[in-house]
Amino acid sequence: MDALVAAGGITGLAKNATLIRNPSLVHSQRFYAKAMAWPCPKGLILNGAHKRSSAVAFWGNNQEVIDAEARLLVNTYARVPVVFVRGEGCKLYDAEGKEYLDFAAGIAVNALGHADPLWVKAVSEQAATLAHVSNVYHSVPQVKLAERLVDCTPFADKVFFSNSGTEANEAAIKFSRKYQQVKAAENNSKQAATDFVVFTNSFHGRTMGALALTSKHKYRAPFEPLMPGVQFVEFGNLEAVKKAVRPGSTAAIFVEPVQGEGGIYPAMADFLQGLRDVCNDAGALLVFDEVQCGLGRSGHLWAHEACGVQPDIMTLAKPLAGGLPIGAVLVTNAVANTIVPGDHGSTFAGGPLVCTAALAVLDRIQEPGFLGDVAAKGHRFCELLTQKLNSNIHVKEVRGSGLLVGIELDVSASPLVAAARTAGLIVLTAGNGSIIRLAPPLVITDVEIEKAVDILADCIKVLD
Ligand SMILES: Cc1ncc(COP(=O)(O)O)c(C=O)c1O
């Protein structure tokens, strides 16, 4: 143990690395035993000179981490067998030092890629100044971020911060219910509207409220009964929406302007406009879930901008803090005015560190020309994919919105995902598993896009 401490530190093993690096934290025999029981692959004892590359050298073997994880972590994820230890720009490196082109971006999170120098600087400086105070107190970065978000969002007057997308939707559910309760009281109605209308292929999160709004049977079934009063309607079918929405019963419609997890389905402008009209007529709120499609991914700052329709509430998360956990709920004053202290809250949400990170992300995304570039790259990406993949009989459609792109296949996408990974390209799936989902960092270059398309074109033969 002393030898390890004296060696100048270890990186790449969060929990035990902390214990080992700081001898004062090794309080008990138990901690010591745990630290030493960890598999000790080659390269464990490093001197200071190797620190920079230690993350790659440390494990030297993906499988050791995977085996340790199976022992230690609750089995909630069907992970792919790779252990990433470092990222730089749009590249990722695994524990064996292999390089990958990242077209997943942590599920549409790492908008600026990995280790963006300005983001790192902002986060490091803020971490060294003030990371967390809780929402019992005021803090400057939270106010600055709220101001930035409100300034660039025409419908929004106020913001509530959360820690994730599902929590943003959870807050939006509560705000919708509270709004309807206050309106019902103002109108001397005996009952407030409490129900929700949502869509096929929707994904709004995994906590109990957001899960009730999420369509996939597999995610819902083990946890039923879920929140009652939720009606699923075919995405894009306005007539069905008109039948489902009932004045006095429907609190809100939740919709993703571009469905992500469900399979990369952009909503048509007249559909979103129709939802707006139905909500206006019924006194229901319109909630846009832009957790995945928002903040530049579509080539617009907000995906709904392309349709010219304004919601009452919009939820955000994934890319907002460039890789740190954050969510946000943007609301009109009409909604905000119905919320009072105690209605909702969070210990961590909107802390100085994540808000400073988010300001750094917005600085980049709002640079002149940035969003235009995203739109142009997304267009070119779809064009190239169509050109190079369409001749394969399993490709049904290439579709997308900016740099959120789907390749729909008539077979499972898993063999292609695995082949691409072996060839050094990381991609995701969506929908029922037959759609390849591509969501690279927004700073991806044309050359990297061409390389990714070439890898997919080369690998697609695994489907034959
Ligand atoms: C549209 C949408 N809403 C909500 C969520 C849930 O976000 P989180 O995983 O941060 O809870 C996701 C996650 O994929 C999403 O795509």
Could you say what the CATH topology of the largest domain is called?
Aspartate Aminotransferase, domain 2
- Tell me the count of domains: 3
CATH architecture of the largest domain: 3-Layer(aba) Sandwich
Shape: globular
**What is the CATH class of the largest domain?**
Alpha Beta
User: Major sheet: size, sense and barrel closure?
Assistant: 7 strands, mixed
The end-to-end distance, rounded to whole angstroms, is: 53 Å
Tell me the CATH superfamily of the largest domain: Type I PLP-dependent aspartate aminotransferase-like (Major domain)
Number of strands: 17
Indicate the radius of gyration in whole angstroms.
Answer: 23 Å
Structure characterization notes:
- The chain has helices spanning about 1-5, 15-20, 30-35, 50-60, 60-70, 105-110, 115-125, 140-150, 165-185, 210, 215-220, 240-245, 270-280, 335, 350-365, 370-390, 415-420, 445-460; strands at about 85-90, 90-95, 100, 160, 195-200, 230-235, 250-255, 260, 265, 285-290, 315, 325-330, 395-400, 405-410, 425, 430, 435-440.
- Strands 4-12-11-10-7-5-6 form a 7-stranded mixed β-sheet, with helices on both faces. A 4-stranded mixed β-sheet has the order 1-2-3-15. The chain has a 4-stranded antiparallel β-sheet with strand order 13-14-17-16, with helices on one face.
- It folds into 3 domains: about 1-65, no CATH class; about 120-365, Aspartate Aminotransferase, domain 2 (3-Layer(aba) Sandwich), CATH 3.40.640; about 370-464, Aspartate Aminotransferase, domain 1 (Alpha-Beta Complex).
- The model is unreliable at about 1-60 (pLDDT under 50).
- Helix content is about 40%, strand content about 15%.
- The protein has 18 helices and 17 strands.
- The longest helix has 22 residues, at about 165-185.
- The radius of gyration is 23 Å and the shape is globular.
- The protein has about 475 residues and is an alpha/beta fold.
- Pyridoxal-5'-phosphate binds near residues 164, 165, 204 and 291.
- The site of pyridoxal-5'-phosphate (PLP) has 15 residues, from helix 9.
